[in-house]
Amino acid sequence: MTKVVEISPTTRHEGHSKLTLKVNDEGIVERGDWLSTTPVRGIEKLAIGKTMDQVPKIASRVCGICPIAHTLAGIEAMEASIGCEIPTDAKLLRVILHAANRLHSHALHNVLILPDFYIPGTETKINPFSREQPLRSVAARIFRIREIAQTIGSVAGGEAIHPSNPRVGGMYRNVSPRAKKKMADLAKEGLVLVHEQMEFMLEVTRNMQNREFVEVAGKQIPLPKTLGYHNQGVMATAPMYGSSSLDEKPMWDFTRWKETRPWDWYMGEETIDLEDPSYPIGGTTKVDTRVNPRMEACNTVPTYDGQPVEVGPRARLATFKHFAEKGTFAQHIARQMEYPDCCYTILNCLDNLDTSGKVLADNIPLGNGSMGWAANEAPRGTDVHLAWVKDGRVLRYEMLVPTTWNFPTCSRALTGAPWQIAEMVIRAYDPCVSCATHMIVVNEEDRVVAQKLMQW
Amino acid sequence: MIEDPYLGKYMTCVSARSTDKEILKKAQDGGIATTLMVYALEQGIIDGAIVAREGDLPWKPRPFVAMTREDILKAQRAKYNISPQISWLKEATRSFGLDKVGITGVCCQMQAVRKAQLYPINMRDVPGKIAFTVGLFCMVNFPYDSIQALVEDHANQSLSSVKKMEFGKGKFFVHTERGNVSTVPLKETHKYEQPGCHVCLDYVSNLADISTGSVGSPDGWSTVFVRTKKGNEVWLKAIADGMFETKPIEEVKPGLGLVMKLAKEKIDKNRKTLEERRNFGVNKALRDPYA
Amino acid sequence: MANKIKLGHVHLSGCTGCLVSVADNYQGFLKILDDYADLVYCLTLADVRRIPEMDVALVEGSVCIQNHESVEDIKETRKKSRIVVALGSCASYGNITRFCRGGQHNQPQHESYLPIGDLIDVDVYIPGCPPSPELIRNVAVMAYLLLEGNEDQKALAGRYLKPLMDLAKRSTTGCFCDLMNDVINQGLCIGCGICAASCPVRAITHEFGKPQGDLNLCIKCGSCYGACPRSFFNSDVISEFEAINEIIAGALKEGERDD
Ligand SMILES: Cc1cc2nc3c(=O)[nH]c(=O)nc-3n(C[C@H](O)[C@H](O)[C@H](O)COP(=O)(O)OP(=O)(O)OC[C@H]3O[C@@H](n4cnc5c(N)ncnc54)[C@H](O)[C@@H]3O)c2cc1C
Ligand code: SF4
Ligand code: SF4
Ligand code: SF4
Ligand code: SF4
After folding, report:
1. Are residues B163 and B210 in the same domain?
2. Which residue numbers delimit the 4Fe-4S ferredoxin-type domain (chain C) (predicted)?
């Protein structure tokens, strides 16, 4: 008989979300709903009427882990709307900033997921804050990688969190030759460390893949080989950085995107009838609690070609590097494989950067209200911002952020997993829930698409 | 360590002059500020220094991040109007790429720096990168238009032909390129002062690593206070490397007594101003930043 | 060895940038967790799902008063914590959530966001968007000394924290306007320039030495006012800068703690 169990709030990721799961007698998820429960700050609505310069600064504050993606996608959506090309050196600084942000974010994600994993060859789960070796050296390495990344980000971007240097039309300032050298030295140091860190994470992941069981709250939970598999497609606009409607060959298609309401996607009212007080730490939602995901969801459900898609490192590697593995562990593996590329990208850009080049466009038009979009490949996937700018003011603004794309896809990927390890499945998406909390206007036509999807 | 309610904490106080001929040629006084920053740069104590360089109008300073000796020298001479030096403090650690920042500035700017070091509000990475500070003595500062009025109206000189300005001996001196010297009595200058200076409780840059000014020492020499461990380290090294000639402050005229007298005058006067601000309106006080 | 304090991070309507800043103390963060504080609550870093008793609660983000859970969370936090710290500008002043005006799917009723000080008594502010890792570190060390230190250490910590406690009493709004209203209009500005350096969106320039704020850029974070030497200047503590820096550096030195 199907029972409903709920994990709320979920932990070890950014923001607030919950998992409402219908499970069979063996505790296997038949249908999973993963939704944001973070209050809707309404960035897209509050942007209306504000200046094109201010809105990306506000958009940055949607997420403090990938603020760079939101800043850059926001600014470039404005530039796409007004038709402004930026100087090469400004673009190089943005790419450096972008790669540095991916580096720090992937390293931070390592800290968040490691407690799900075992020290290879042992029955001990990893506590990244432990003083014991080898864990302390791993933690030290992760923190050093993050320090390197955040320092490069702050030099190129003005701040490591919520960068201040990017602006509509380019950047406020180019960097000094000394700053250029500093970034190169750091990236070179980072390159050695990320190779070590990648090897470590791959070993830990492969070890996990070979296990039959994991322990949760003293119970042995079987680990399916197909954990996190789904039949949805993938979406990515570039292996690094992104694309915009100003590109000669844009890598994202506005007309293939459709929006549906959570109402059409999520379960209606349910009553919790399965509870586990031993679930770490604090237990699951109490029996007899009434829940209603479609009413409670704070996120949206975007589709591409009428289907939810997966975005993120696995999507990028599948799209651009013929990476064929699927599921939760493939996502982890793909993420680690992106590590070195961050450092190589920074070093390549620095090679080409002219520190005396100008970084601000001579002419910054004020816009006539046409739509422009920019996609930035955030650490956790494609972040598309759309802007309509007229006379320097924002008429309409939309953000299709990575975790928004992943919510419905991942909900499907929960099917077949024992509910006790459902959180492992969502964590593999490196969710950033605050970003994903907003919703866009839809027309009636789109609702039909959604209902069809529900039946399938 | 000496602790004085007016002169702050210091380890040593001497009269000094740079031994660098090029620096001395254009120095305001003994060329202490410039020589110390150049020395710190060459010794790797700092990677660059925030100084007050000439801006877009004659004698209007602008903050500048100098990373070479030549650039530090371009900031020589006191410009008696506001240079928002500390606006570059964070950027120096960002696009300029400095890990060890040197800063020159007046007393209140040293206060801003130390506050940022202990209470870094949106000043990430800055506290650990403040490597060496040289503070100037400061009685008062002026808005640009005040200096324009003093030089062009009161002293009847054109700003663009002024070579040096100087306060001392109860007068404001304006030296022109052609060797002309005009003076304005100090009391005529008061109305033009920056109002914020009237609650300033520091005359000799108590919070700098090393502070310096003209008062107390003979013409062409400077009075120097060495205040912190860091300051002492740099000073002893610089002396050992022959960067400065020094004389004990007790042996020069007018000596520490004058510094003390002026410090006391300034601070007591400004304490009184703060007191007056407490009863400024009818049962209304103006804000007291030190409360 | 003195007891570790119980430290928690409560996430409301914030972006987690404040928490990333906490972690951006890197080795210093590990040292704090090793020796001074147990992280007893932090949804992003630990599996604890319900708010426990805490000595120090770092609260990030503002409160959406149309969201029942958020309102309960902040009340619960106050009840269960000895010291409540508003971590960052959203918790202290509202920051960008001051601009919120609701009307957006899927919860269009989420309209009103308040800094935590409008709902509960807050003990300490750490302004900044995000707050500097170094200031978070200083407050963490000082809170530890205040709760677990000897008499001298308690006194020092009390003096250090006082202006940040005063900020928490002063206001729940922050803006460039604070510099106009409480510094320039009060005849206190000295053109030092640090307000411009502190502004996270480069909204401040200096014109003839005095700040000019672009109100179409300002995100209402309150940093400029906090950084200004003419907002608060506690000379008794700031003149001890060299000794206090040494104490903090000593506390965070790598290796085993010796006491
Ligand atoms: C506004 C002001 C008021 C002063 N009042 C007094 C006083 O009352 N009594 C006294 O003894 N000395 C005072 N001085 C200091 C004195 O004028 C000299 O600047 C000091 O002795 C340094 O001389 P020097 O030869 O070592 O400097 P130099 O080697 O010539 O270098 C000058 C340094 O001053 C800095 N500087 C110049 N103008 C400014 C400015 N507007 N703001 C910040 N930094 C600046 C430059 O960056 C440079 O590093 C004052 C200085 C200023 C700027
Ligand atoms: S008198 Fe004080 S406040 Fe005024 S400029 Fe000099 S040091 Fe600053
Ligand atoms: S203060 Fe800034 S960094 Fe902190 S939660 Fe708010 S927007 Fe994010
Ligand atoms: S920080 Fe304060 S005193 Fe300094 S320039 Fe800004 S407003 Fe004026
Ligand atoms: S001017 Fe800048 S620092 Fe001041 S409140 Fe506005 S955004 Fe914050």
Report:
1. no
2. 180-209, 210-238
Which domain does B171 fall in, by range? 143-192
Q: What is the ipTM of this complex?
A: 0.96
Rounded to the nearest integer, the mean pLDDT of chain C is: 95
Contacts with C, B 74-103, CB within 8 Å: 81-91
3-state SS, chain C, equals CCCCEEEEEEECECCCHHHHHHHCCCHHHHHHHHHHEEEEEECCCCCCCCCCCEEEEEEECEEECCCHHHHHHHHHHHHHEEEEEEECHHHHHCHHHHHCCCCCCCCCCCCCEECHHHCCCCCEEECCCCCCHHHHHHHHHHHHHHHHCCHHHHHHHHHHHHHHHHHHHHCCCCCCHHHHHHHHCCCCCCCCCHHHHHCCCCCEEEECCEEEECCCCCCCCCHHHHHCCCCCCCHHHHCCHHHHHHHHHHHCCCCCCCC
Query: Is B77 a domain residue?
Result: yes
Q: Does residue A61 have its Cβ closer than 6 Å to ligand 3? A: yes
* B110 shares its domain with B219: yes
Is the domain defined by A3-452 classed in CATH 1.10.645.10? yes
Q: Return the structure tokens found at A439.
A: 């919703």
Tens of pLDDT, residue by residue over C66-117, are 999 999 999 999 999 999 999 999 999 999 999 999 988 888 899 999 999 9
Q: Is the same domain home to B167 and B180? A: yes
Tens-place pLDDT, residues C186-222? 999 999 999 999 999 999 999 999 999 999 999 999 9
Residues B206 and B183 in one domain: no
pLDDT score, position A449: 33
Residues B31 and B113 in one domain: yes
Question: Which residue ranges make up each domain of chain A?
Answer: 3-452
Instruction: Answer yes or no: are the C-beta atoms of B224 and B212 closer than 8 Å.
Output: yes
Query: Could you tell me if residue B166 is inside a domain?
Result: yes
Q: What is the DSSP letter of B159?
A: G
Whether residues B96 and B7 fall in one domain = yes
pLDDT at C31: 94
Same domain, B46 and B184: no
Task: Tell me, yes or no, whether B131 and B149 share the same domain.
Answer: no
Residue A442 has pLDDT above 70, yes or no: no
What's the pLDDT at A14?
A: 84
* Domain-located, residue B23: yes
> Residue B98 has what DSSP assignment?
-
Our count of domains for chain B comes to: 2
- In total, the C-beta contacts within 8 angstroms joining chain B to chain C are 175
Give the ligand 5 atom nearest the CA of C214: 1
Nearest residue of chain B to residue A180 (CA atoms) = B97
Chains touching chain A, criterion 3+ CB pairs below 8 Å: B, C
pTM beyond 0.80: the answer is: yes
What pairs with residue A221 in β-bridges?
Answer: A214
Q: Is residue B287 part of a domain?
A: no
A396 Rama class: left (phi>0) / alpha (psi -120 to 50) / beta: beta
Q: How far is CA C24 from CA A161, B54, B192, C19, in A?
A: 10, 38, 46, 9
Residue B254 burial by CB count (10 A; 0-12/13-18/19+): exposed, middle or buried? middle
Q: Alpha-carbon distance A45 to A260, whole Å?
A: 18
**pLDDT score at C47:** 87
